[in-house]
């Protein structure tokens, strides 16, 4: 049985252990420059270009054709997309799923709307891989992954919300507050899959402490943690240190954001996905 996990590039993954995997790239657009968020993208080069570029910039989700290409010849596809409340990505994936199963009635596709992004999607991909490895049926995996996302969460700390505002995804007024020197906006992906701001923190240290407090409030008790950051390994490491002080044996992995997340999270941004209640 050829089973494949497919996630859009906001998961910040180029592969996953123990399972076939494909990433479907979103794109970042600035003037006549286009950055495809795939394995070839030079993320820091893109950030450097964008810092110098003063015109309009934005992002674009993949089309159904991009998802179909990623499904390849898989007999069973387990997909996951960025929240449908902020992107058309999930919609494209659904169209692709319908086309795929119409063309191949013996194949199956399930795409989960993560109502989140980044490291929470990484947890979902890893859980898919675990369920596939355990040899569960297609239906069991779909059921279990939905149950799993009932107890995974995403929190973030961002230094700037300028690119969110530029793209009409939050108000200019809110972005102006976030842009104040030294202010970090700590928030979460709401249960509805929207960006929800919770706290304004003065300085990185306070933001990290706030993230850790929010994790405990969401029922964190030693489960898996995935931290994705944009050029902020120190921030990611100090959050990991807080968590390890409470749970010395917990499984924490840290990585850099790829193109899409680094465009929105901007320099210094930290996203944390974790298992809670
Ligand atoms: O379709 C498109 O062009 C993509 C739009 C994506 C917009 C959201 C990107 C979020 C990136 C930033 C911090 C986490 C926010 C969590 C909200 C659920 C990551």
SS field, number of helical segments = 10
Order of strands across the main sheet? 10-9-8-13-11-12
Beta strand %:
25-35%
Distance between the termini: 34 Å
Output the radius of gyration. Answer: 18 Å
Shape: globular
Sheet having the most strands? 6 strands, mixed
Write the element-wise H/E pattern from the N-terminal end onward: EEEEHEHEHEHHEHHEEHEHEHE
Strand-pairing-aware structural class: alpha/beta
Tell how many strands the DSSP assignment holds: 13
Rounded average pLDDT: 96
- Say which molecules are bound, naming each kind only once: heptadecanoic acid
Spans of at least 5 consecutive residues whose pLDDT stays below 50 are none
Helix content: 25-40%
How are the secondary structure elements laid out?
Layout lengths: L2 E6 L11 E5 L2 E4 L2 E4 L6 H10 L4 E4 L3 H8 L4 E6 L7 H15 L4 E6 L4 H16 L4 H12 L2 E7 L3 H5 L5 H7 L4 E7 L5 E8 L1 H14 L7 E5 L3 H14 L5 E5 L2 H7 L4 E6 L2
Parallel strand pairs: 1-2, 1-6, 6-7, 11-12
Antiparallel strand pairs: 3-4, 3-5, 8-9, 8-13, 9-10, 11-13
Helix pairs in contact: 2-3, 4-5, 8-9
The site of heptadecanoic acid has 23 residues, from strand 5, strand 8 and helix 10.
In words, what does this structure look like?
With 277 residues, the chain is of the alpha/beta class. It has a 6-stranded mixed sheet, sandwiched between helices. Strands 2-1-6-7 form a 4-stranded parallel sheet, sandwiched between helices. The protein has helices at residues 43-52, 64-71, 89-103, 118-133, 138-149, 162-166, 172-178, 204-217, 233-246, 259-265, and strands spanning 3-8, 20-24, 27-30, 33-36, 57-60, 76-81, 108-113, 152-158, 183-189, 195-202, 225-229, 252-256, 270-275. Heptadecanoic acid is lined by residues 26, 59-61, 82-83, 86-89, 116-118, 154, 156, 169, 189, 193, 195, 261, 264-265, 271.
């Amino acid at each position: 049985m050829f089973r494949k996990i497919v996630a859009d590039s906001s998961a910040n993954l180029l592969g996953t252990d123990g399972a076939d995997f494909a990433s479907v790239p979103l794109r970042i657009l600035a003037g006549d420059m286009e950055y495809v968020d795939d394995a070839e993208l030079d993320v820091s080069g893109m950030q450097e270009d964008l810092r110098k570029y003063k015109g309009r910039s934005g992002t674009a989700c993949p089309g159904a054709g991009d998802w179909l290409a990623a499904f390849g010849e898989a007999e069973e596809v387990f997909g996951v997309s960025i929240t449908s409340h902020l992107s058309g990505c999930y919609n494209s994936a659904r169209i692709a799923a319908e086309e795929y199963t119409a063309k191949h009635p013996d194949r199956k596709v399930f795409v989960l709307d993560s109502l989140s992004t980044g490291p929470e999607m990484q947890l979902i991909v890893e859980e898919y891989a675990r369920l596939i490895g355990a040899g569960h049926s297609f239906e069991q995996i779909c059921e279990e992954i939905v149950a799993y996302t009932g107890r995974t969460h995403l929190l973030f700390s961002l230094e700037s919300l300028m690119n969110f505002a530029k793209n009409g995804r939050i108000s200019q007024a809110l972005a102006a507050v976030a842009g104040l020197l030294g202010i970090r906006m700590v928030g979460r992906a709401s249960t509805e899959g929207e960006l929800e701001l919770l706290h304004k923190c003065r300085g990185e240290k306070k933001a990290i402490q706030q993230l850790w407090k929010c994790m405990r409030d969401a029922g964190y008790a030693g489960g898996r943690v995935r931290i994705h950051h944009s050029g902020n390994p120190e921030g990611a490491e100090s959050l990991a240190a807080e968590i390890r002080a409470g749970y010395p044996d917990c499984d924490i992995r840290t990585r850099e954001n790829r193109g899409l997340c680094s465009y929105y999270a901007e320099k210094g941004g930290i996203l944390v996905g974790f298992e809670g209640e």
